[in-house]
């Protein structure tokens, strides 16, 4: 019998690239279609874990591992949205300017037997105080589109980040240390 393959329950090319750093090539990729609305009063950490779990469970697969993730940018108890328009991205950047925030990157792995394992990476990030010109320049580049908190650390925003403590890959969207540990614990053979 063949060893179980891995399905990445995400359409994100960044998650695929990060997974490749562990020597893992998913057999298939695809975003899970779930309601991503936070529950009333839901804390950012609980929301991130719930989203990863629901995405892993929503992907129906046979003899395969299913890896899902979710990345949340939070200021205090506030969950920042994925920026789908420039006005939202601007609001996020203005809020994050000169202050520390958390990036919570949750992963969930569903085994071929239906078992579910989860891990959470928490990273502290601080932007420099951003001028109106810096915000306008970043927005003009378009990297913010569809990104939690309105920025992509793997792009030009990295030059605006004064300090980070935690997982850089977690801020990008897949915390590699936690992902590797989760896969090994589940018995998935790494490349």
Rg over C-alpha atoms, rounded to the nearest angstrom: 17 Å
Largest sheet, strands/sense/barrel: 7 strands, mixed
Structural class by helix and strand composition = alpha/beta
Helicity level, as a percent range? 25-40%
What is the helix/strand order?
EHEHEEHEEHEHH
The domain tally reads: 1
The total of beta strands comes to: 7
- Mean pLDDT across all amino acids: 93
CATH topology, what is it called? Maf protein
Low-confidence sequence ranges: none
Please report the first level of CATH classification, the CATH class: Alpha Beta
CATH architecture: Alpha-Beta Complex
Q: How much beta, percentage-wise?
A: 25-35%
- Distinct helical segment count: 6
Large-scale geometry: elongated
- End-to-end separation: 19 Å
Keywords: Cytoplasm, Hydrolase, Nucleotide metabolism
Organism: Croceibacterium salegens
EC number: 3.6.1.9
Function: Nucleoside triphosphate pyrophosphatase that hydrolyzes dTTP and UTP. May have a dual role in cell division arrest and in preventing the incorporation of modified nucleotides into cellular nucleic acids.
């Amino acid at each position: 019998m063949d060893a179980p393959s891995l399905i990445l329950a995400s359409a994100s090319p960044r998650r695929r690239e990060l997974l490749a750093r562990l020597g893992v090539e998913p057999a298939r990729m695809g975003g899970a279609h779930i309601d991503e609305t936070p529950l009333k009063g839901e804390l950012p950490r609980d929301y991130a874990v719930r989203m990863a779990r629901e995405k892993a469970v929503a992907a129906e697969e046979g003899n395969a591992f299913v890896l899902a993730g979710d990345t949340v940018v939070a200021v205090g108890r506030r969950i920042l949205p994925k920026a789908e328009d420039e006005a939202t991205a601007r609001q996020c950047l203005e809020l994050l300017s000169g202050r520390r925030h958390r990036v919570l990157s949750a992963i969930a792995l569903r085994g071929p037997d239906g078992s579910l394992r989860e891990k959470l990476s928490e990273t502290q990030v601080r932007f420099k105080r951003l001028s109106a010109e810096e915000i306008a320049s970043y927005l003009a580049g378009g990297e913010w589109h569809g990104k939690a908190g309105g920025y992509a650390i793997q792009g030009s925003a990295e030059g605006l980040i004064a300090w980070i403590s935690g997982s850089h890959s977690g801020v990008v969207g897949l915390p590699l240390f936690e992902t590797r540990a989760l896969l090994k614990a589940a018995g998935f053979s790494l490349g």
